[in-house]
Fold each of these.
Amino acid sequence: MIPTFRFAPSPNGHLHLGHACSALLNADLARAAGGRFLLRIEDIDEARCRPEYEAAITEDLAWLGLAWETPVRRQSEHFSDYRAALAKLDAMGVLYPAFESRAEILRLVAAREEAGPWPRDPDGAPLYPGDAKAMPAAERADRIARSEPHVLRLDLAAALARLGAEAARLSWQERGAGPAGETDPVGPTVTARPELWGDVVLARKDVPASYHLAVVIDDAAQGITEVVRGRDLFAATSIHRVLQALLGLPAPVYRHHRLILDADGKKLSKSTRATGLRELRAAGTTPADIRRLIEPAGDLVHP
Ligand code: GLU
C-alpha cells in the first residue's frame, strides 16, 4: 500500500500558520515515505464556504512550495456518497432524526442544568439533551412527511450495541502528540472514547453530511493511510473510529500534531490577521521563514 497523506482545509477563510503547519507536515511526511500527497476541499458548509477562498488556498499552498495530485476532491461534489452511507446507517437502526433548533437545544440544556452540570463534549459543546430518539415512529414519519427541518443523529448506544465486542476494542494507532500536546508520542495505541461525544450529528438540516461523516467517507474513498492533522481533532477520532467500524471502512494511522498558538496561548483563528499566510507574505515573509515560525509545533521533517 502506498502511504497516502492529505491536507483537508475548509474554504471558509484564509489559511494561517496552523494550516501551513499541517500542510507542510503532510507533504514532508509523504515525501519522506515515498508516498502520495492529496488535497481535499472540505466545503459541505455551503453557506460559509466560497470559491474565492478555495482559489486563495491553492495559491497559498503553491507559494509554500507544495504540489498535490489532481483532481482535488471537493466534498460538495460527493453528496451522493454521504447519502449512501446515511442509508446504510439508517438500515442498521443507528440513526434518528432530531427536530430541535439550536435555540431549543440551548433551552433544553439550561433546563437540564437546573439539576446540576450537563455533560459537554471534548469541544465544549453540551451533549444532545433532547429525547428525539424516543419519538414514536408515527410522529417521526408525520413530521418528516411535513418536511420539518431536522438533523440526523447517531444513536451511539445502538451503534455500540451493534458493534458488540468490537466496540470495547475500538482504538487507533497514533504517531502524534496527543490531546494535551505531549512532547512524546502518546501511541502506539489509543483507546476510543466515543461516549464523550454522545449522539453526534451526522447529517445537517440542509446538507446530507456533517464533518464526522464526510471525513471518514472521504479518507476511505481517497485511500488515505495516514491522517495528519492538529490535535484539536484528536478526540473526534473516537467518533471516526465508530463510523469506520459501522461502515466497514479501513482505519488510517493518525498523527495529531501540536498546534500553533497565538500570543495568548489560544488556537489560531481564520480572522487573526497577524498569522494569515497572505498577510505574512505581503509583509515580506518567505516560505523558509514560515517553516521557522511553525517549528514550535515540532515534528517537521526538513527536506
Ligand atoms: N477541514 C478540517 C479543518 O479545516 C480538517 C479535517 C481533518 O483534517 O480531518 O479543520
Amino acid sequence: MPLAPFGFALHGGAGFDPQHDYTPQIEQLRTVTAQARTQLQEGAAAIDVASQAIIAMERCGLYIAGRGASANAEGDYELDACLMDGARGTAGAVAALQGFKSPIQVARALMDHSPHVLLVSQGAARFAREKGLEPIDDPSSWFTPALTGESFACADAGGHGTVGCVVLDQHGHLAAATSTGGLLHKYPGRVGDTPLVGASTWADTQVAVSCTGHGEAFIRRAAAVQVAHRLRFGHGTLEEAVAAVLADVQSANGAGGLIAMTRQGEIRASYNAYGMKHAYLLPDGSIHAAAR
Ligand code: ASP
C-alpha cells in the first residue's frame, strides 16, 4: 500500500551559504509544492505535474535554471534539461539550448513529438522554434542570474541551484524532471549531468530520481539510475541506496544531492554538499521545506 495516494518532492539545487537568506527560495519551493499537491489531488498525471513544477521554477529566476541561469565563460546562456515518464519509460532532454524561455518545455515536446531523446545546441533550438515554443528575444533583459561571482562550481559556492522534482500520481505512475544553467562560467559547450538520462534524471515503474551537484561526478557514477538499479537488484532500502550512491559520487570527488521517490510513496532528500534547497509533501499532505 502506498504511504499516501500521491507524492511530490522538489529541489532547488545543492549548495548552502550560511550568510545567505534563502527565504524567497523556500517560499517558492512551498508555492510550487502546494500547486503540485492541488494538481495531484485532482488526479493529474505525474509527468504533467513534473513539467509544470519545473516550468514554474525556471520562470521565477531564483535558481540557476531558466531565467536565473548563469552565463558560461563567454557570457552566453546554455541551458540543460531532462524529464522522464516512468510509466511509459520515455524521456526527453535538451543540452546547451540557447534562446528559449523554458528548456523543460522543449524537452517535453521532444519526448511527446519526436522519436529522439536528446537534442543539443542548434538542433534543440531549431526543434523548439518548429514547435512554436516561447523564444527569448533579448537575453540581456530576460536573464536575471541567480548566481554571480568568481566561483566555478555552484555546488561549492552556495549557489541558488539547479531545480528538479520527483512525482508519484494517484495512478501509481512516477516521473522525474531536472533543469539547470549548469556551472557558473562553464566552458562553452560543456554539458553536465542534468540532461543525461540516468546521470541526473531517472524514472521507471519503481522509483524516480533527480540529482544536483558537480555534474561530472554524477555522470561518472550514473548516479540517478544507480539508485534504481540498487533497488531493482535488491541492494537494500531506498535510504541505503541513496546513501551508497552519494558515497559513490563523493568517491568521484563530487558534492551534491538528490531527491528520490518510490512507487510506495517513500521519499528521500539527501546531500553530501553543505545543503540542498528542497521541499516535499508529508503523508498528512502538509509541506516540509528547508535550505539544508
Ligand atoms: N549538476 C549541475 C551541472 O553540473 C549543476 C548543479 O546541480 O548545481 O550542470
Amino acid sequence: MSESSGYQPGTSAVDSSRTSYGDAGFSRYLRRAFLASAGYDDESLERPIVGIAVTQSDYNTCHRDMPALLAAVKRGVEQAGGLPMEFPTISLGEILTAPTTMLFRNLMAMDTEEMIRALPMDAAVLLGGCDKTVPAQLMAAASSEIPVMLEVVGPMMTGSWRGERLGACTDCRRFWGAHRGGELDGDEIVSVRQELVSTTGTCTVMGTASTMAALTEALGMMLPGGATPPAVSGARLRHATQTGRRAVELARTGGPLPREVLIREAFENAIRVLAAIGGSTNALIHVLAVARRAGVPLEMADFDKIGSDTPLLVDCKPSGVGYMEDFHRAGGVPALLTELAPLLHRDHRGVSGRSMGELIAETDGPAEWQNTIRHLPDPLGPPGALAVLSGSLAPNGAIIKASAASPHLMQHTGPALVVDNPADASAILDDPDLDVTPEHVLVMRYSGPVAAGMPEAGALPIPAKLARAGVRDMVRVSDARMSGTSYGTVVLHCDPEAAVGGPLSVVRNGDLIRLDVPNRSIDLLVPDDEIAERLRSFTPPARAARGWRRLYEETVLPASQGADLSFL
Ligand code: FES
C-alpha cells in the first residue's frame, strides 16, 4: 500500500501548501483569507481536498458536456465528505489544434503534473477524453505523488444518413473517399457532414480516444466500467459521481498512488486489451511514454510479443463494423476482461482497490444476445492486430495496424512515390496526370516528432486518379502517425525519422520497397552501401527559433521511446 500518509483529520492541504509569503503562520493566514473570499470557511477546509482538472474549451467540441461531468464528480466528492476544487489545464481538441495536438501532448502533461504539485489537494480527478488529453493526463499521473484517478467524457452517439448509421470518424474518411472517387456530389457530402458528429463526446469508433479510455480502465487508473458509457448517458454521470466518492477515499488513505498502480503487470494487461479491441496505433506511443514516466521498462517489441497470442475480440470500426455504443451495450471493458481473464494478471489492483480477479469474478461476461464482444475461442480476427516492423527502412521500428489493413497487401513489393510532407501530398496526389499505379508504395517523410510534431497524416489519400478508378487501398509508409479511426495498409512511426537522418530521408522515386507483415519487416531494397552513400549528403531541416516548438524539437524522444521530452 501507499507510502503516503494521506489526509489527516484536523489538517488541510491548504495549510501544508508550499506557497510562502514570509513566516509560515502568515502564509497560512493569507491563504485562508483569500479562500474565505470565495466562500470557503474553516469547516470546508477541514475536509480532504479533491482537485479536479477541467479541460473544457470551445475549441474542443468533444468536451462540450464537461460542466455536467464536473458537477457529477463534485457531487460524489461532497457526498463522501470531501471538498472538490476544480482547476483548468490546457485542453487539446483534435480537430482545431494546429499543427497537431501531438505537438502539445507533453506540454499538457507538464501543465497537469505541475498543477497537481503546485495546488493544495489530497487527491486528483482528471477529466479528459479527446485523443491526446487522456495520454497527457496519464503521463502527469505517473509523475504525481498523490492519488490520481481519470474520468473521461465518453464517446458520442452515432448519427444516420439516408438510413445508414454513421459516426466520427472512420465514416468521415469512408465518405470522403467516396466523394473523391466521384460517388457522392458536393451537396451529398455536405449533408453527410451534418450527421457525422451527431452528439458531444469522443469519436464513436475504436479510435485513439476510445482506445486510451479502454487502456486507462485496463491499467487500473479509472473505476471499472468507465471507458464506454456514452457522453450523453446517465451512466456516464453516475460513473463520474462514483469517481468523486472514491477519490475522497483515496485522499483519506493516501493511496494507491499512481506508481503503485502503473506497474509492469498493468501495462501487460493494457497491451492485451489493446490487441483485443484492435486499438489505435497511437496507443503504442502513449503507453510507452506513460511506462517510461512510471519507471517500467517497456519497448515496442513487447506489444508484438504480448499481442501475438491475443486475438481481436471487439467488433468496432475501423477493424470491425460496430461503434462504441455497441461495445458499451455489450458490457464494455469489464465484459471484455472476463473473456481475456486467462491471459491477464489478475492480482493487479487499480484505483478501485479491488484486484482484477475480484472484478472479473463479479462481472457478467458478454451477453448471449450480442455480437460485439466475441469469445476467446471464436475471435473476430487472429492475434497480431498491431504488428511491429523493422528493417532497412525503419531500423528502430515501425508499426502497422494489421487488423485494419488489406490482406492482399500484407506482403507487397512496389516502387516508391515520395512526398516530403503533408502539404506536398495534396498537390502531388491530386494531379490527374500523376504517374502512379496501385502497386506503388506512397512514401511521406519529414512528418516525425522532430520535423513536425508527428501529425496524423500517415494515411495518405489514394491518388485521385486511382481513387476514381476504384482503388481504395495502397501501401503507405511514413514517419507520421495516423488517426486511430483510419484504416488501410499504412506503415507508421518509422524510426529514426527522416529529420534526424533516418533511411526514409534518402528514398527516391522508383526505389523498390518491400512490406512483409507476416515476417515483420519493412525494407528499402537498395544496397546498404548505396543507402550509406546517400545518407552522407543528408542535410537536416531548419529547426524552430524559439518557444515551445524549439524546446520540443531539441528534447523530444523518438516515437519508439514514446516521444516524451527527454528530461521528464
Ligand atoms: Fe476528439 Fe475524435 S476528435 S476524440
Amino acid sequence: MQTNTPIGIFDSGIGGLTVTRAIRRLLPQEDIIYFGDTAHMPYGDKSTEAIQAYSIKIVNFLLSQQCKAIVIACNSASSAAYKLIREYVGNRALVVNVIDPMVEHVAEHYAGKKIGLIGTKQTVRSNVYKKKIDDMRQGIQLQAMATPLLAPMIEEGYAGHPIMAQVIRDYLNKAAFDDIQALILGCTHYPLIKDMVDDYFGGKVDILDSSEIVAQAVESKLCRFELKREDNRQGNAQFFVSDYTPAFEEMTGLFFGEHAKLTLYPLWE
Ligand code: DGL
C-alpha cells in the first residue's frame, strides 16, 4: 500500500456519490476511483450471495487500480459483504464500510436510548446494525424498518415533493418509532431526504446521515496506517459504471452536488 495511490469507492449505483462527496470535501488531495454497479442496482432487493459475488468482482477491479483503501459506500453491500471483502482483501488495502462508523457514533452518543433505522430490505433483513449495536453493550434499543420505496423515488427526482412527504409519513408513523431519540438513515440515497425526515419529526429526533461520519472514518484509518496524502494538490476523481445511460449521468448532480462524467467499464463482459 502506498500513500499516493487512490481511494476506491463503490456502490450499487449512483447513491454512493453522497459518501464520495463527503470524502472529497474532507480529503481533496486524494485521488478517487468510484465504481457504480448500475448494471445490477438496486442491491437492496438482491440476495446476500448475489451482492457478495458482485462486490468481489468490483473489489478486484479497484485492487487492479492499486487502491490503497476500499470504501463500501453502500449499506446493502456493507451488510452483505463486508466480512467477506475484508478477508478477501487481506493486507492489500484498507477496507471501510458505511455501517461500523455509524455504530460507533451511536454507541458514543445514545447509550441507554431508543433509536430507529431505515434502509433497504437487504440491510434491514441482515440485522447487521442490530447485532453490531448490541455488541457495543450500551443498552441501545434499535427499531429497524425497510423502506424500499424511498431510494427509487429519490432517483426519480421526488426528494422535496409532497408525494415523498406522504410516503415518509406513512412509513414512519408507526408505534415502533414512538420515543426514538435518533433515526439512522441506513441507505446512501437518504441524505437527499434528510430535511424531509427531520420535518416529519418536527426537529425532535436526531437524523443521522452517515456520509460525513464515514468520511471521517476513512481519514482516521488512512492516518493510522500513515497512508494519508499530505501534499497540497487537488486530487483526480474518476467515475466508472457497469452500465451507462444518460439518465445515470444526470443523476450524478443530485447525489454528488455537481455533474460527474461517467465512464462505462463493462466489468461483466
Ligand atoms: N446504495 C444502496 C444502499 O445504501 C441503496 C440502493 C440499492 O438498493 O442498491 O443500501
